[in-house]
């Protein structure tokens, strides 16, 4: 479940920008309702913040048409995404949090650290390339490449490597971990039931049943052969 916890108060701007950036990658302009749904809040609550983001020159916002990021807004989004992923790595690598805890826990304080703390964390972590869920830690908009091949799109016989997994459903992440699914793991689809049925897959050395929702939350890169 998404809590939308980071969506309130002074952290709101960066939370909005992160979501708008991600949604714009899927379809632009972003509708107010799509944004509200992604943030798990009522559409009426987002309009106020959207107006303020527009005043700051971070987005173009036309009511009933949608939202696009300005170049300034893109830069600010990338900064917010970068910070989130660095803080996630800090939580898992240095503080021993599990990967299903990192996302929510990061939202609680990531906007309250200085740029210098963020910079030093990054160095102390050995300049990681990805967050615990496999997403790149970006320096520019092009780095925030969104994988679009899900495990579910594979056909029986096809092999793939897990690149990243959706990070905002803690229970799902916990379950994934129990199946041995994480970035870097190789998976071979053995069978797939029709009508959104589960697939049978070889995960590392184990055979697993992976349901539709789970398989759609796992992004992969196909492997040849
Ligand atoms: Zn993450």
Q: Give a quick account of the main beta sheet: strands, pairing sense, barrel closure.
A: 5 strands, antiparallel
Compute the separation of the termini in Å: 38 Å
Identify the strand order in the major beta sheet.
Answer: 6-5-4-3-7
- Give the helices and strands as they follow along the chain: HHHEEHHHEHEEEHE
Structural class of the secondary elements? alpha+beta
Q: Which term fits the overall shape?
A: globular
Structure write-up:
The protein is an alpha+beta fold and 225 residues long. It folds into three domains: 5-72, Winged helix-like DNA-binding domain superfamily/Winged helix DNA-binding domain (Arc Repressor Mutant, subunit A), CATH 1.10.10.10; 80-143, Winged helix-like DNA-binding domain superfamily/Winged helix DNA-binding domain (Arc Repressor Mutant, subunit A, Orthogonal Bundle); 151-223, Ferrous iron transport protein A (FeoA) (SH3 type barrels), CATH 2.30.30.90. The protein is built from eight helices and seven strands; from the N terminus they run H-H-H-E-E-H-H-H-E-H-E-E-E-H-E. Zinc ion (ZN) binds next to helix 4.
